[in-house]
């Protein structure tokens, strides 16, 4: 149990990347439309986020410097400001979507319109960030998110045609165009590797006061949390492929996306999955709101974090509060939360190289890392992913325009 | 004093690093710029921070907006940036650590007093203000027109003795053998400029020895973008006027960075 608690930071971070509101629905949509033919993208995403999260966790443990501090330090004030602008914008958009997502989960549970749930969700999220200790927060929401494991049970209960799912791995359906296929591939990769995951993960390492002694903890967080998040997102897609694909239906809401669980495990399963969805989206709310505070504070060198009392990090807490207010206002305009994340994912794909490049550079700098610099394996993988992310960054927006966001 | 003086590259090792207060690990600010005492042997006198230091380095519209917004809220006739004497710096590593009971920047103090302390449950706001007696010795951050900013030396066009363009400044080499500061430590002297043949922004540390060109793909790419990199000693520089650097010797006579 103690070991499980030590990796809740990784679980919370990963769930915010792989199974937050946008991905929950995107995975189901992808499963229903493309079967398992995009599963390889999720695997590429899991490996990529593991490589860079491991580097950023190692840097945080050895030098106590979180990712956005490094972005400014290595890329300089101008490129840093461009990245800050893009990341902050994406963070607030995603935050709005996650507040909406948590409210939608409560609508499923209570039948009360989600807009009524938006203000209380935002208020409680802010109270948690204002007063609850980082470790407590991470444990409660990391562990509660594990309720989503019910999707694995559901898939097993549904008894899919495993042979059919395996064939789908290599064969995209014929009726979808290549640009649409690529657009969803980029959206999935962007979702798996969103920049706020490393902002949150490395800042969380500093919040937990990691030192060189905690390198093992840092690695355990990475190699348990992110693969678990990835497996869940694959399972959601497989459930959707089993239930929706044969009848050519496309799930377009949270209520439809949890249907395979109701079919496989029944009412209790449905209750558990709604709890899981709520915990994952609420956790992602915390992750994105804190990340907006972390990135702005670390760029300007302000005192940040929950490891000091709130009165000693005024600019940080004001930033978090302001982000929550703006995001709440945005979602109360009745804008569709799921649409919001679809767009923000594609924009975040464009900002990815500017975040991961300095991480790769600092992880190789002996001034920071001493003998803990990257090995050859991390460098080969890291360089490969830098090339891949550059391609993705260039292709993201043209593909979105060409396919009208995947329609 | 037999050990060799410490050598730093200003942009790589100092600029944009986090400043941390030694006594309680509080994060104070970033090294937004460095103040330089000009002369025959110029040296770094202070760390500058805040919008009035960062704004000019950013340049363009964002830099102008940042500077002017800050000026609006400042009472002084000629406001200057937040300033930390180099003599109180105790360590330059992944962060820059400084000694003493230094106050937070104005925005943090204002927000603590007027916003955060009014929210229920705000612990820690009372630690904010130092007692009256220490407030009185608070330095006024006025601009020092006779000093120079190190950030202004970066990205300048370099011309050879006959006026032909030789390259672009990419970093400033600092050697800790300058005059004594506050009788505690020697100042970092501006020893020379690193000049790249092509204009390609930063070097990201890849000007250092080949053992540090990792990952190799990235190292090779950055070095290729910059072309040849050479090092001009301070006395090989003739003038620093008109936002340009004029060399006193030809490009071929400059040292290669491989010898550094």
UniProtKB/TrEMBL annotation, chain A:
It is a multi-pass membrane protein. Pfam families: Nramp. It is found in: Membrane. It comes from the Bacteria. InterPro entries: NRAMP_fam (IPR001046). The chain crosses the membrane at residues 38-60, 81-105, 111-128, 140-159, 181-201, 222-247, 314-333, 345-363, 383-402. This is Divalent metal cation transporter.
TrEMBL record, chain B:
It comes from the Bacteria. This is Uncharacterized protein.
């Amino acid at each position: 149990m103690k070991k499980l608690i030590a990796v809740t930071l990784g679980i919370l971070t990963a769930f915010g990347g792989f199974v937050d509101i946008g991905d929950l629905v995107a995975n189901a949509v992808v499963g229903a439309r493309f079967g398992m033919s995009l599963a390889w993208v999720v695997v590429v995403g899991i490996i990529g986020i593991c490589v860079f999260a491991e580097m950023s966790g190692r840097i945080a443990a050895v030098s106590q410097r979180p990712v956005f501090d490094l972005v400014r330090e290595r890329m300089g004030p101008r490129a840093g400001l461009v990245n800050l602008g893009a990341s902050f914008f994406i963070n607030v958009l995603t935050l709005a979507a996650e507040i909406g997502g948590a409210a939608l989960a409560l609508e499923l549970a209570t039948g009360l319109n989600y807009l009524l749930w938006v203000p209380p969700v935002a208020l409680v999220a802010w109270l948690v960030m204002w007063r609850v200790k980082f470790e407590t927060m991470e444990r409660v929401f990391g562990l509660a998110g594990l309720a989503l494991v019910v999707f694995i049970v559901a898939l097993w209960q549904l008894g899919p045609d495993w042979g059919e799912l395996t064939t789908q791995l290599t064969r995209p359906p014929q009726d979808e165009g290549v640009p649409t296929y690529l657009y969803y591939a980029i959206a999935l990769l962007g979702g798996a590797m969103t920049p706020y995951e490393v902002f949150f993960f490395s800042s969380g390492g500093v919040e937990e006061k990691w030192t060189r002694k905690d390198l093992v903890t840092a690695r355990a967080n990475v190699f348990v949390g992110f693969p678990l998040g990835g497996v869940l997102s694959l399972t959601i897609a497989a459930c959707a492929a089993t239930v929706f694909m044969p009848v050519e239906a496309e799930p377009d809401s949270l209520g439809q996306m949890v249907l395979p669980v109701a079919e496989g495990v029944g009412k209790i399963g449905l209750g558990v999955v709604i709890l899981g969805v709520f915990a994952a989206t609420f956790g992602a709310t915390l992750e994105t709101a804190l990340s907006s505070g972390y990135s702005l504070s670390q760029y300007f060198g302000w005192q940040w974090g929950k490891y000091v009392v709130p009165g000693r990090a005024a600019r940080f807490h004001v930033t978090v509060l302001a982000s929550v207010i703006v995001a709440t206002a945005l979602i109360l305009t009745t804008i569709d939360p799921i649409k919001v994340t679809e767009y923000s994912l594609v924009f975040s794909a464009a900002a990815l190289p500017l975040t991961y490049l300095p991480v790769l550079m600092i992880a190789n700098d002996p001034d920071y890392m001493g003998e803990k610099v990257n090995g050859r394996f991390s460098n080969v993988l890291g360089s490969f992913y830098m090339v891949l992310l550059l391609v993705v960054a260039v292709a993201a927006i043209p593909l979105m325009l060409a396919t009208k966001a995947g329609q | 004093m037999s050990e060799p003086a410490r050598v730093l590259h200003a942009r790589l090792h100092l600029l944009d690093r986090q400043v941390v207060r030694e006594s309680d690990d509080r994060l104070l600010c970033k090294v937004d710029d460095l103040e330089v005492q000009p002369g025959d042997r110029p040296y770094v006198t202070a760390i500058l921070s805040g919008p009035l230091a960062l704004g000019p380095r950013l340049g363009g519209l964002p830099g102008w907006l940042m500077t002017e917004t800050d000026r609006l809220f400042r009472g002084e006739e000629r406001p200057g940036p937040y300033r930390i004497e180099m003599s109180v710096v105790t360590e330059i590593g992944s962060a820059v650590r400084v000694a003493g009971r230094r106050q937070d920047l104005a925005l943090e103090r204002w927000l603590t007093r007027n916003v955060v302390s009014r929210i229920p449950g705000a612990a820690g706001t009372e630690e904010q203000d130092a007692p009256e007696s220490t407030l009185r010795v608070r330095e006024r951050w006025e601009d020092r027109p006779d000093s120079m900013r190190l950030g202004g030396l970066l990205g300048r066009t370099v011309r050879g003795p006959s006026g032909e363009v030789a390259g672009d400044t990419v970093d400033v080499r600092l050697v800790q053998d300058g005059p004594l500061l506050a009788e505690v430590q020697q100042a970092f002297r501006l020893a020379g400029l690193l000049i790249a043949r092509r204009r390609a922004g930063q070097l990201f540390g890849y000007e250092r020895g080949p053992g540090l060109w990792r990952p190799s793909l990235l190292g090779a790419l950055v070095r290729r973008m910059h072309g040849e990199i050479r090092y001009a000693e301070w006395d090989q520089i003739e003038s620093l006027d008109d936002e340009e650097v004029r060399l006193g010797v030809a490009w071929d006579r400059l040292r290669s960075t491989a010898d550094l």
